[in-house]
Every structure is written in structure tokens, then in C-alpha cells.
Backbone:
């Protein structure tokens, strides 16, 4: 028994270890799931960025190629067409820097333009003049070419193998740059051919290169596209001023559905993390906040598996705890039963042995004393018989082996058949008893008479044991009409049952602290309630205070 009780700390320690391990596994699984969600969200974000780059390059590439296809003469005099009108929204003014560093623009000298258009063109040309005032164009173009060359050197020339996981953005940028470069070269060849046709002079046009000019006071940067022009061996420069705010707005609108919070920032250096968001047609990069991975539903497979695991483990631990507790309770019950039976058997067996020895050896000569000894032996044998009968009846009831013998009787007949043993038990304890059927005498019940007799006898027997100081008041057995049922109430006038012990009066082998010197093993009330429920009735304690104890047996009417 001690070993079983000491098992609780071991159970608690093992349960704690299992729960800690399960908690660790749960944390790991949830962390892995969050990482997987973050990876999937990042992959989706990267796909959106790549699609956004393709959109912008596909829109901006032809627009820049159109300007690159313009011949040398278009920067000397104004030509008007629908395509040029469309590009004027983003390309504000064309300009030329001749061999004497003189800055001119065909839009400023356009005779067909209105005064407001020429005035606006002069304002744009003044901005170009301010930007180029302290700028060495040749050095800027060389730096732009060097930057483009460095960028191309960092990119693969062919499609990468799958094993190079981080090379896909480089490959896509290379493809986009290749497409834009091919288009620009074709348009530049067209421009050279047109220039040769439109003038007798030898003209060679270079490619347009982008030049960024940062501004102060957080103003938007200025963007120029400039190309070298070789005319009869002399170098000149031609270019056009971009409206970066308008260009930026249109590019952002192109990708608004993919990256709602995206911005496009100038790229002025090759020192960057990678080509993931770099445009091929323009030295600019897409900047967009990384998406926040959405939380998964509790119905996700991981959550369902974890919930079932926790449910299974907790259910298993509770089942083990319940089984262990039942085992401890059973062991305690067996211990109490053995102690109670041993205590109950020791006294009558001692009496039997002593009295039989005295009678067998002829030590009792007085007839009256001999008769007294014989009556004592009879009483002890009856007590032992009742003890054995209660134990056997409880065992049969627990195992479901008891068979009820039902018959229909009136309460008057029932009490008349059961009165003799009840009166005999009360008289043997020096008590009187009143058995009253009253108005319920003719009520009929279908029940097991032997079981009712056993229940009432146990109740009267308990009253005789614990209500000896009832000041001459009788035990009362009376009937009550409950409508659909009738009840038999057994009332004594003893000390009653303490309030702290009322919850345990029907527990088997449980006895109060003030009953140690009283005979019994604490089985009578548990057996009585079990028999009552077996025949469809109920036994309950009505009162257990200082005014005595009152037990009610309820039976359904027939």
C-alpha cells in the first residue's frame, strides 16, 4: 500500500516530462510552420516583383527606343507626330550641346509653337543648362558606361543551372537587359541610317545613356538621357530631359495591383544586395515592404495534428491517473475491509473460545450462569452470521450475481412480514420500536421483500448501535405517500450524524471517528443503498443533526 501511494510522485514526474516534451514539439512544429509560411510569402513577393519588372521594362523599353531611333536632324528642327506627342508627357525637352559647348533645343526655336509652349521649353532648357553647367558630359557618360558594364559582368550570359538557387533574378535581369539592348541597337541603326540620308555629312550616333542628378531639399532627382554624336569627326552631345515625377507615377501605376506600396528609386551605384528588383531599361530599383505572412487557420493540418496529439496525451494521462487512483482506492478499501473484518471477528471468536473452553471443562457449575453463557454464544453467532451475510450480499451485488425475487404486496402486508426481526433487534438492544403503515397501508408495491427486509434491518441495526442514549424514545418506522411513490422512513433519537460525515455515510467500509468502539465494518448503509437502487428505489439521509438520524427508502408504486 505504501508503494502504491509513493507512485504518485513518479506519475507526476513522468506526466510533467511528457507534457514538457509535447510542448517543445508543439513549439518546434509551429515555428517550422511559421517559417514555411514566411518562405511561401517571400516567394510570392519575389514572383510579384519579377512580374512588375517585366511590366515596367515592357512599357518603358519601346518608349526609350522610339527616342533612340530619332535621327540627328530631329535635334536641329522640330518634327511633330503622334508618337512624339505621346512621349512629351515624360520627355520634356530635347537638347544638343555642339562643339562650342553651346546648348540649344529644337522646341525653343520651333516657329509653329505658341508663346507659352516656347516659354515652357525655355524653362526646361534652363533646368538642363543648370544641371550641365558644372558637369563634364564625357566623364559622366564614361561613368554611366562603366556602371552598365559592371552590371553586365555580374550577370550570367546563359540560363543558370537549377542548383544555383540564387541566380534566377540575375538571369531574368540579363534577359530583360538583352531584350532592351537589342531593341535599342536596332533603333540606333535606324537612326544612323536616317541621319545619313537626311544630311550629306558623316554622322555617327551613340546609345542614349541615363544620367541621374540628385537634388537638394528632398526634391525629386533629375533624369537626363544623353548620347554622343560624331559629326565629320567632331563630337557633340544630344539628349532629352525626363519628367521623373510623371515617369515614376506611370511606372508605379503599372504595378499597383501587384505591389500596392511599391516605390521606384534611382540606382546610382552597383554596390547593392543583388539584381532582384533592378530595371533593365533604367538605372532604378523597385522598393517595396516585405509582406507579412498571414496567420494560418486552426483547421490547418499542423494545428489539427497538434490538437489531436494534445487531446490524446491529456486523455491518456487522465486515464492513467483515474486508473491509478482507482487502484489506490481499491487497495485502501481492501485494507479497511481486512482491518474491519479482523476486528469484528476477533472479539466473538475470543468469546467463543473462552466460553466453550469453560463449558467443556465443566468450570461453570451454576445453571443460570451456564444459560447466560449459552445465550451470549448465540448472540455472538447471530452477529457473525449477519456479518457474513452482509459481506456475501455486498459481494453478490458488486458482481451482479444477485437475483431479485419481485412480488406485489401492500405496505401493510410488507411491514407485517418484516416486523418480527425488527422488533427482536430493537428489544435485544433495550429499545422500543413503533412500526406504522398509516394511510399508506393499502398502497401496493412490486418489490423484493427480502431486499426490503435486509435494508430495514440494517437501518434498525445501525439505530440500535448508535442511538442507545435516546432517553427512552422509541425507534420509528413509518410510511409516507409521495404521489407516484411511497417511502419508508426510519428515525432514531440518538446523537445523530455530524455534518462533516454525512457525505461518507453510504461509502463502503467508512466509519466515523466516534464509532471505533462500536461493532460493525461500515458496510450496512452501502449495502442498503445498493439494494434499494437494485430494485428501482432510492435510499437517502434526510437529517443527521443532534435530533437523531432519519433515513428514507423510496419505492415506486405498483
Residues:
Amino acid at each position: 500500500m505504501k508503494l502504491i501511494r509513493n507512485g504518485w510522485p513518479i506519475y507526476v514526474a513522468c506526466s510533467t516530462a511528457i507534457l514538457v516534451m509535447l510542448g517543445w514539439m508543439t513549439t518546434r512544429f509551429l515555428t517550422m510552420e511559421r517559417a514555411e509560411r514566411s518562405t511561401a510569402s517571400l516567394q510570392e513577393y519575389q514572383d510579384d516583383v519579377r512580374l512588375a519588372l517585366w511590366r515596367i521594362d515592357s512599357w518603358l523599353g519601346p518608349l526609350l527606343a522610339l527616342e533612340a531611333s530619332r535621327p540627328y536632324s530631329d535635334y536641329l528642327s522640330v518634327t511633330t507626330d503622334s508618337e512624339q506627342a505621346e512621349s512629351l508627357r515624360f520627355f520634356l525637352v530635347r537638347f544638343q550641346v555642339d562643339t562650342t559647348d553651346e546648348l540649344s533645343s529644337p522646341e525653343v526655336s520651333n516657329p509653329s509653337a505658341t508663346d507659352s509652349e516656347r516659354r515652357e521649353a525655355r524653362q526646361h532648357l534652363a533646368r538642363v543648362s543648370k544641371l550641365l553647367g558644372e558637369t563634364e558630359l564625357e566623364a559622366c557618360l564614361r561613368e554611366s558606361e562603366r556602371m552598365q558594364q559592371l552590371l553586365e559582368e555580374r550577370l550570367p550570359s546563359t540560363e543558370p543551372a537549377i542548383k544555383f538557387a540564387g541566380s534566377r533574378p540575375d538571369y531574368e535581369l540579363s534577359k530583360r537587359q538583352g531584350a532592351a539592348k537589342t531593341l535599342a541597337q536596332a533603333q540606333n541603326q535606324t537612326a544612323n541610317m536616317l541621319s545619313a540620308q537626311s544630311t550629306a555629312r558623316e554622322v555617327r550616333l551613340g546609345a542614349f545613356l541615363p544620367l541621374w542628378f540628385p537634388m537638394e531639399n528632398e526634391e525629386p532627382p533629375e533624369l537626363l538621357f544623353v548620347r554622343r554624336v560624331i559629326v565629320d569627326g567632331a563630337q557633340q552631345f544630344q539628349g532629352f530631359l525626363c519628367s521623373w515625377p510623371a515617369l515614376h507615377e506611370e511606372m508605379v501605376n503599372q504595378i499597383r495591383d501587384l505591389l500596392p506600396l511599391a516605390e521606384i528609386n534611382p540606382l546610382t551605384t552597383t554596390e547593392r544586395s543583388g539584381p532582384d528588383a533592378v530595371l533593365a531599361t533604367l538605372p532604378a530599383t523597385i522598393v517595396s515592404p516585405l509582406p507579412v505572412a498571414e496567420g494560418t487557420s486552426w483547421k490547418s493540418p499542423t494545428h489539427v495534428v497538434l490538437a489531436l496529439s494534445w487531446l490524446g496525451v491529456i486523455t491518456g494521462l487522465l486515464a492513467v491517473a483515474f486508473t491509478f487512483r482507482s487502484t489506490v482506492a481499491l487497495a485502501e478499501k481492501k485494507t479497511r475491509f481486512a482491518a474491519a473484518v479482523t476486528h469484528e471477528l476477533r472479539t466473538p471468536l475470543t468469546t467463543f473460545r473462552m466460553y466453550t473452553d469453560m463449558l467443556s471443562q465443566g468450570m461453570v457449575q451454576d445453571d443460570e450462569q451456564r444459560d447466560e453463557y449459552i445465550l451470549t454464544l448465540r448472540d455472538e453467532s447471530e452477529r457473525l452470521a449477519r456479518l457474513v451475510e452482509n459481506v456475501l450480499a455486498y459481494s453478490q451485488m458488486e458482481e451482479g450475481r444477485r437475483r431479485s425475487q419481485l412480488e406485489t404486496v401492500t405496505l401493510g402486508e410488507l411491514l407485517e412480514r418484516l416486523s418480527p426481526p425488527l422488533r427482536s433487534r430493537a428489544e435485544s438492544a433495550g429499545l422500543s420500536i413503533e412500526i406504522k403503515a398509516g394511510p399508506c397501508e393499502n398502497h401496493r408495491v412490486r418489490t423484493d421483500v427480502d431486499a426490503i427486509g435486509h435494508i430495514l434491518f440494517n437501518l434498525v441495526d445501525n439505530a440500535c448501535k448508535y442511538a442507545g442514549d435516546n432517553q427512552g424514545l422509541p425507534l420509528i418506522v413509518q410510511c409516507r405517500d409521495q404521489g407516484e411513490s411511497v417511502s419508508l422512513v426510519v428515525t432514531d433519537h440518538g446523537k445523530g450524524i455530524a455534518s462533516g460525515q454525512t457525505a461518507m455515510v453510504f461509502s463502503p467500509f467508512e466509519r466515523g471517528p466516534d464509532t471505533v468502539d462500536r461493532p460493525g465494518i461500515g458496510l450496512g448503509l452501502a449495502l442498503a443503498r445498493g439494494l434499494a437502487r437494485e430494485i428501482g428505489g432510492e435510499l437517502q439521509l434526510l437529517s443527521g443533526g443532534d435530533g437523531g438520524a432519519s433515513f428514507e427508502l423510496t419505492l415506486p408504486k405498483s
